[in-house]
Amino acid sequence: MTHALPSSQPTAARPKPAEFLAFAVLAALLAVAPLAIYPFFLATALCFALFAAAFNLLVGYSGLLSFGHALFFGGAAYVAAQAAKVWAWPPELALIAATAFAGALGLGVGALSIRRQGIYFSMITLALAQMGYFLALQAPLTHGEDGIQGVPRGKLLGLLPLSDDRAMYYFVLALFLAGLLAIHRIVHSPFGAALKAIRENESRAISLGYSVDAYKRVAFGLSAALAGLAGGAKALVTQSATLTDMHWTMSGEVILMVLLGGMGTMTGPVIGAIFVMAIPEVLNRIGGPNFSQWMTVIQGAIFVICVLAFRRGLIGELAARARRTL
Amino acid sequence: MIPLLGISTQALFGQLLLGLINGAFYAMLSLGLAVIFGMLNIVNFAHGALYMVGAFVAWFLLNTFHIGYWPALVLAPVGVALLGMALERTMMKRLAGLDHIYGLLLTFGLALIIQGVFQNLFGASGQPYPPPDLLKGGFNLGFMYLPAYRAWVVVFSLAVCLFTWFMIEKTRLGAILRACTENPELTRAFGLNVPRLITLTYGFGVGLAALAGVLAAPIYQVRPLMGADFIIVVFAVVVIGGMGSILGAIGAGFLLGLVEGLTKVFYPQAANVVVFVIMVAVLLVKPAGLFGKKI
Q1: Domain total for chain B?
Q2: B280: domain range?
Q3: Cβ of A130 under 8 Å from any chain B Cβ?
Q4: What is the spatial distance between Cα A39 and Cα A175, in angstroms, rounded to a whole number?
Q5: What pLDDT score was predicted for residue B265?
Q6: CB contact under 8 A, A301 and B109
Q7: Quick check: A134 and B105 CB within 8 A?
């Protein structure tokens, strides 16, 4: 903070031109990516990248480690699938419904889980997500083990058919970039600065008069809503919503993406998500299907190495190096 | 057989017994979690995986070396405790002073590694493990048939829990441990080797988990993922009971096991979620947990 005068609202740091440049480069790269890589794979990867960025909004900027974000991702996927398939809603409405559902659910789960602090918070989110998983397993609406299959992608705004993978990819890319910009906006707003203050020193923030719980609840809700947008988009891309998206392994996977890329960095989660998505593909290519059984072990090993050796993640570590040499 | 509310007493008491057994495992696991959290400030996500390893060590001893249940009841926890202490010395130790989320992330990664390796070696299906000869059969109590092995598990785990409580609350060693939890610097200044105590505590905690695993082996099948979902329920139990008191952890464990068993009889659809629902209720009414005070 450069201001010497205290103000009632924390002033947010002005975004640097370098960040806009990085964003423009990322957008340009992703726009031409379908020339080299299958659009279907890319679209799925972008959904996970948005999911990771949404998760990072919570863990990276408010320091709350949710172990249950699969609940919002997977839950919203069910909502989008149900809306698009059973109610025959157009894709944009299905996505709005999914986002709203996840946001509302997030406000509720957030309000409950911040009643306990620190390590209990993670355990409560994990337990609540597991409860959601069992409900999805048993509820008739979600069709148990089968999930909802054959979800139509529909026509965007009634005009553009999304059945083509390439069209779907560019739609997801637009969603992804909008989501990233929204996160950027939130993080660099006075609200985001207050979140960071809470992360750094909660008791200080309380003594400065911030209603810390309200901030945490809203941060949780925003993160959940964006995770829901990602989940809904994934349901449209893969044309299905299944239990896998709600399982605790999915919550673990998104944590891995953010940890590997760099918690509290803008581009880190995106890079992390792409890495984590690419691992099984690479494994398949070098070792065949037998090799991909070791996916869990490799993920676990990345967790251990990240925590022990580079806690700032790929991007965080790079940024720290760059600053040191400058 | 006398039916009660349309449910045969056999089914009712059978499920209650199974609930009590599950409760015993909840109690032993949450006890270990509480002790480890007190000393290391780490919530040990690998607890469920090490519970599974305990069961697999017993299975392995039987099928490879023909070492039976009784020696396994000692060997498996000791082996897992040694493994745990090695992990603590090489990894957890480096996290001292860091934000507690790193402990959770590290142990989560360890759990993935352990479970992944066992899944690759043994597949997802379960391996049977027979109960020891001495405890085969059971007793007819008139209102229910009581399998001897299940009775043994309840009695033995209750004894282990109470022994742990006695050790921590009533002995000199326990007093030293509580002192470490309260103020490690000051305890160190009194000339006690705190890092060694921390390592031993971690070993003891995961040893308890492995012991529960051996006890579980003849009741449930020995599966690589037997601890994965289990640990999440144990986390909920810990949130409900609070990690503040030893007796609270034991009581909450047994109680929730019983409630789960009852739910299985009267409303089986909700059996999977009842512990989580209770957790939500406790959070709304008494957010600090039923026996909540900082350990």
Answers
A1: 1
A2: 3-96+127-285
A3: yes
A4: 15
A5: 84
A6: yes
A7: no
